[in-house]
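Predicting holo structure, pyridoxal-5'-phosphate bound.
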Amino acid sequence: MPLPFKPGPDPAVNLTEITKRIHQSARACNRDSGDISLIAVTKRQPLQKIHSLLHAGHRVFGENRLQEAQDKWPALREQAPGLELHMIGALQTNKVREALRLFDVLHTVDRPKLARKLAEEMASSGRSVKLFVQVNTGEEPQKSGIAPDDVDRFIAMCRADYQLPLVGLMCLPPMGEEPALHFALLREMAARNDLTQLSMGMSGDFEKAIAFGATHVRVGSSLMGERTQTPHDPSG
Ligand SMILES: *Cc1c(COP(=O)(O)O)cnc(C)c1O
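Done. Tokens:
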């Protein structure tokens, strides 16, 4: 494993380094790096750093809060055509309509009520976005996500009852635990449910996630440095 990457002040320079590491990790396990998408997680980062990535040609971004994303991204979309925006944080059912308007991919489908609401709003808006089911692989009570034992049933319900366009699974392994076991579990659950996409791996473990089949790595602080703190954000 290479040394942990220490980000410099310029996100565009970090982007080059992380892209290189993604290529290396892919090659090491005989994967095509074109199958791996780098989601730049821009929550609580200054606009200037986002501009730096846009200027470098990056177009795939992730946010974890709808309100914050709505404050930034509609204007940026006009300046940077071809954006692909990913919602990676918890989604309230009463915000589904707005989330569908802004985002292209949602990573946090995690309960039947949300699945039903997504189906209703997609039908009424005519807009369909790609969906990941979030799995609580560590069965942590404070974390959202479907419990591993319930995943197959939940996916079957999303398909049969709501015809949801599911593409993959997403996980956030417990802090301080070896993530490989969680990545392996997620891969196995996706394979047996005919889902091809895996959203897993963050700043500290994206290379390992690629070895376990990640198709979407979500990298924030290694690209853009430490985030500004807000007191009530559970995601750190
Ligand atoms: C913040 C966040 C990330 C990025 O974390 P880093 O460690 O800064 O790379 C990835 N996934 C989710 C769901 C997040 O909330």
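Residues 41, 43, 64, 88-89, 172, 202-203, 218-222, 235 surround pyridoxal-5'-phosphate (CB under 6 Å).
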